[in-house]
Each structure stands twice: as C-alpha cells, then as structure tokens.
Amino acid sequence: MKEKAELFKVLSDPHRLVILKRLLSGETCGCTLIEGLPITQPTLSHHLKMLSDTGLTTTHKEGTWKKHQVNIEKINELIDFLQELKTTQVTEQGGCRVSIH
Question: For residue 4, what are the contacts with CB-CB under 8 A and spacing of at least 6?
Fold first, then answer.
C-alpha cells in the first residue's frame, strides 16, 4: 500500500499531471515538456525525477538528449488498483466487515 500512496502523492501535483499527459502523446525531452508551463527548468527536472523515481515514467539518452516516456505498465497497475477498490467496496460496521453490493 505504501507504494500506491507514493504514486498518488506524486500524481497530486497539477504540473506533474500535465507533464504525464503530454508524455502520453509520445516520448519527448524536457525542452518540449516545459513549453507553456509556468515553471523553471530546475522545477521541471524535479517533477521529472519524482515521476521517474516512482516508475511512472522512464528515461533514456539519445545523443545529448534525455528522452522521457510514460511507463504504461505502472499506469495499468494504478487502474487495476482503483478497479479493485471500486468492485470490493468493503466497509467497517460494528467491528464486522460487510460487503456492499
């Protein structure tokens, strides 16, 4: 659960959500990602590091450029987790676990 909480924490920042959404269009470098964002290059680097550290994105070097892309497997893990929450719907009542249908 701690890993899932970290993922949601990283996704709680609106700039990181914009960056992630842009990366869903295809891999790119930081110079493209920063366009139109009200942040500095060091702040972008911080956001990209957080996304990468949690596994939401991956990077590789292409010459002198560092290319970023979304890790779809990690996104699918989050979707599966949310689906589990949606279908389980378990609540605590008087110390007993009761499933709600």
Answer: 78, 81
In terms of residue numbers, what domain contains 29?
2-73
pLDDT in tens, 66-95: 999 999 999 999 999 999 988 886 554 455
Residue 86 domain-assigned? no
Tally the domains of the chain: 1
Largest CA distance in the chain: 62
How many angstroms separate the CA atoms of 15 and 5, rounded?
A: 18
CATH number of the domain enclosing 51: 1.10.10.10
pTM of the model: 0.82
Q: Pairing between strand 65-70 and 90-93? A: unpaired
The owner of tokens 């010459």 is 63
Confirm whether 97 is domain-assigned. Answer: no
Residue 17, domain member (yes or no): yes
Q: Which two tokens stand for residue 88?
A: 């389980």
